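Students often ask why inverse folding is considered easier than folding. One informal answer: many sequences map to the same fold, so there is more than one right answer. In these notes we will look at a single instance of the problem. The structure comes first.
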C-alpha cells in the first residue's frame, strides 16, 4: 500500500473515538493484550513512564522526553492526537516514525491474519510499542488516550506512573464526578510502581491514595512538594527557580505550565531515586529546548507577529479556564477570538468563561464531531459573546487577520485540537510556499 492508503486503512478501523465521538469509544484491554502477544510483547524491551490526566499529560510527557534525551538516552514518545501528520504520535528522539515504517507495520499486520477487530488507537499504540522496540529505545514516554484503567496503553508495566490532574471531561465515559474520573485515571497505578500526582485535593486525592495503598505503590504529590519557589517571564521563555536553588528556563511560556513543570521535576526526582542518571544540565537543556528536541506545539504557541497570532489546545472546562487566565495576562488593545468546539464539550459551562470584550470568529473544524458554527454563535450570543460565522478555520483566521491592527491587537485561535490541526496545516503550507 501507499502511505495514504495505509492511513485510510488505519482510520477505517472502527471504532475511532477521534472521528466518531461517543460512538467510537471502545473500552477494554483484551484486544490490546492480543495484539501485544502477536508482536512478542515489545513494550517489555525498554523502560516506560506512563502518563495520564485530564490536562497537561502531553506537556509532561514531552518535557520528560526532552530531559531524558538531553541526558543521552534514546527516548520514544507516544502522544495523541496529532495535528497535521499522523506520524507526530510516534517519535524517537524527536523524529517522527518514517512513512515506510507505518506502511511496513500495517502490511505486516494484515499478513498475520489477526481475527479480531482492533480499533484505530489499539493498532496505533501497538505500532508505537513495536517501533520503539525496533529502535532499541532506552525509555518510552507513553501518554494515555482517554481515561486510564481501560485505555489501550494500560497493558504496560512502567517504572513510573504520572497523573497530572483531574477535571470534568469525557464524563459520558469516565463518570460524572471528579472522584469517579479519578478512579478511572488511577487505573494506571501498578503494583509496587511509584506514582507521581501533579495536582489533587480532597476526595480526588483520597482516591489516588487508596489506589496506591491497594497496589503497594509509593505515591507523591507534586503540588504538596511544590518544587518551584519562584517564576518570571522572559523573552520567549519562562524562568523558574527551584527550592533547591536551581534556575531553569522553560520554552513553554504559559502560566499554566508551572504546574506541569513541577510535575516533571517531581517525576525526575523519582526516576533518579530508581538509579536513572539525569544530571542537572540535562534538566536545564531539556526544558529550555523542549520544542526543538521533540517537535512539541499547540500549547500557547505564537505562530505570527504583526498581528500576533497565538493558539492553544485547551478544549475542556479546565483547559479553557487556563486559556482565559493566560489571556487576562496578555497585553493588547483588541482581542480577536477564532474559536470552534466539538459537539460533546460542556459549552454551557465553557462559553461563560470566555472574555466578552472581544470580537469572535465562530468556525468549525472539518470533522463530523464539530459543532456547526451557526449553532456555536447562537449559544455564544446567549452568553454575551458577539461575532460572525465562518465556514472554515482558514476563512475565520483570514477575517481576523484583516480586522486586527498589526501592532496592537492579539488573535487567539482555539477551542479544539481539530481547529488547531487546520491552523497548523495552513501555516505549514504558507511557509512552504514562501520557501519556494
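Output (designed amino acids):
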Amino acid at each position: 500500500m501507499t502511505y495514504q492508503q495505509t492511513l485510510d486503512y488505519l482510520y477505517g478501523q472502527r471504532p475511532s473515538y477521534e472521528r466518531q465521538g461517543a460512538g467510537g469509544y471502545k473500552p477494554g484491554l483484551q484486544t490490546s493484550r492480543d495484539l501485544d502477544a502477536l508482536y512478542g510483547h515489545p513494550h517489555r524491551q525498554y523502560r516506560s513512564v506512563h502518563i495520564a490526566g485530564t490536562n497537561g499529560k502531553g506537556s509532561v510527557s514531552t518535557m520528560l522526553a526532552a530531559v531524558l534525551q538531553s541526558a543521552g538516552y534514546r527516548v520514544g514518545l507516544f502522544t495523541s492526537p496529532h495535528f497535521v501528520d499522523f506520524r507526530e504520535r510516534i517519535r524517537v528522539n524527536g523524529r517522527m516514525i518514517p512513512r515506510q515504517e507505518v506502511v511496513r507495520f500495517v502490511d505486516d499486520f494484515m499478513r498475520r491474519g489477526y481475527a479480531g477487530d482492533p480499533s484505530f488507537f489499539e493498532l496505533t499504540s501497538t505500532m508505537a510499542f513495536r517501533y520503539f522496540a525496533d529502535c532499541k529505545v532506552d525509555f518510552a514516554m507513553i501518554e494515555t488516550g482517554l481515561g486510564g484503567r481501560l485505555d489501550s496503553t494500560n497493558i504496560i508495566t512502567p517504572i513510573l506512573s504520572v497523573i497530572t490532574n483531574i477535571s470534568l471531561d469525557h464524563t459520558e465515559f469516565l463518570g460524572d464526578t471528579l472522584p469517579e474520573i479519578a478512579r478511572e485515571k488511577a487505573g494506571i497505578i501498578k503494583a509496587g510502581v511509584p506514582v507521581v500526582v501533579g495536582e489533587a485535593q480532597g476526595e480526588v486525592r483520597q482516591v489516588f491514595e487508596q489506589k496506591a495503598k491497594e497496589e503497594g505503590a509509593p505515591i507523591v504529590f507534586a503540588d504538596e512538594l511544590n518544587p518551584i519557589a519562584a517564576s518570571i517571564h522572559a523573552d520567549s521563555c519562562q524562568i523558574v527557580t527551584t527550592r533547591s536553588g536551581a534556575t531553569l528556563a522553560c520554552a513553554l511560556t504559559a502560566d499554566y505550565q508551572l504546574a506541569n513543570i513541577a510535575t516533571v521535576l517531581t517525576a525526575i526526582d523519582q526516576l533518579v531515586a530508581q538509579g536513572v542518571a539525569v544530571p542537572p544540565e540535562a534538566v536545564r537543556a531539556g526544558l529550555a529546548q523542549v520544542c526543538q528536541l521533540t517537535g512539541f506545539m499547540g500549547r500557547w504557541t505564537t505562530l505570527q507577529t504583526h498581528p500576533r497570532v497565538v493558539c492553544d489546545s485547551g478544549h475542556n472546562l479546565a483547559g479553557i479556564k487556563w486559556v482565559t487566565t493566560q489571556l487576562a495576562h496578555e497585553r493588547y488593545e483588541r482581542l480577536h477570538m477564532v474559536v470552534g468546539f466539538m459537539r460533546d464539550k460542556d459549552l454551557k459551562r465553557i462559553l461563560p468563561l470566555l472574555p466578552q470584550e472581544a470580537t469572535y470568529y465562530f468556525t468549525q473544524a472539518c470533522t463530523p464531531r464539530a459543532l456547526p458554527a451557526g449553532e456555536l454563535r447562537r449559544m455564544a450570543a446567549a452568553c454575551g459573546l458577539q461575532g460572525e460565522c465562518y465556514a472554515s478555520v482558514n476563512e475565520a483566521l483570514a477575517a481576523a487577520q484583516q480586522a486586527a491592527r498589526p501592532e496592537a491587537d492579539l488573535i487567539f485561535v482555539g477551542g479544539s485540537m481539530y481547529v488547531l490541526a487546520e491552523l497548523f496545516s495552513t501555516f505549514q503550507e504558507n511557509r512552504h510556499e514562501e520557501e519556494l
